[in-house]
């Protein structure tokens, strides 16, 4: 267990260094919340889950986010994580991380490359999501659910506002001029994406229960914003 913790500590150092300039919507604190939630989801399951894979994949899940990198691809993921997987501390825990497609290193990288909501929607439209391993991999489901849960509810509201500030997106505009705003408003993001991250799109029983509560909070928040904006 001590050796595992040294490996996790090494991963944390890499993530903090790589994401030092990310805005608050995708910073270390977001990653840490996703890590903690993913582990909670994993421990709630009856199915066997590799907790080390869950934790490392959750820590690495935003390293290749297309919003912050020039190119996001499996090659980029491997290049970013190359020093980590070849570090003596990691090698003591994962001596052959890529010996097969089911080895821990391979699974971690595959999870990182398949966590995002937009990636899943794109592959589903192409009929390429249901290829077997994604539907069977509970480690992937835990990391995906944790990332999506942090996009909704109280932190979802805060993160939407933080990202809007980072890209100079207005928080709210009148509905009749919404279509004239490049990228729309923060409130429009709730309608376009965040309200779609409901219990039906999550994959773990605990994640689904948490999503119901967080969706309710977001809808109450958006209703309050609309009410306040319509004062005569």
From TrEMBL:
Top-level taxon of the source organism: Eukaryota
Q: Name one Pfam family in it.
A: HD
**Which residues does the UniProt record annotate as the domain HD/PDEase?**
23-161
This protein's name: HD/PDEase domain
Upper taxonomic classification of the species?
Answer: Eukaryota, Fungi, Dikarya, Basidiomycota, Agaricomycotina
């Amino acid at each position: 267990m001590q050796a595992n913790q040294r490996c996790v500590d090494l991963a944390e150092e890499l993530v903090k260094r790589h994401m030092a300039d990310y805005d608050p919507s995708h910073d270390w604190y977001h990653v840490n919340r996703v890590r903690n939630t993913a582990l909670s989801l994993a421990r709630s399951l009856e199915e066997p889950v590799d907790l080390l894979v869950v934790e490392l994949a959750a820590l690495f899940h935003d390293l290749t986010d297309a919003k912050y990198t020039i190119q996001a691809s499996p090659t980029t993921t491997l290049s970013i994580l190359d020093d980590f997987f070849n570090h003596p501390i990691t090698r003591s825990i994962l001596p052959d991380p890529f010996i097969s497609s089911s080895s821990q290193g391979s699974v971690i990288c595959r999870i990182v490359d398949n966590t995002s909501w937009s990636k899943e929607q794109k592959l589903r439209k192409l009929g390429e999501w249901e290829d077997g391993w994604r539907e069977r991999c509970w480690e992937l489901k835990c990391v995906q659910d944790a990332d999506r849960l942090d996009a909704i509810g109280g932190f979802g509201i805060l993160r939407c506002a933080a990202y809007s500030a980072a890209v100079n997106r207005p928080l709210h505009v009148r509905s009749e001029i919404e279509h004239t705003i490049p990228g729309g408003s923060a409130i429009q993001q709730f309608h376009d994406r965040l309200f779609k991250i409901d219990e039906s799109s999550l994959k773990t029983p605990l994640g689904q229960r948490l999503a119901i509560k967080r969706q309710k909070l977001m809808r109450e928040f958006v209703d309050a914003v609309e009410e306040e904006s319509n004062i005569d």
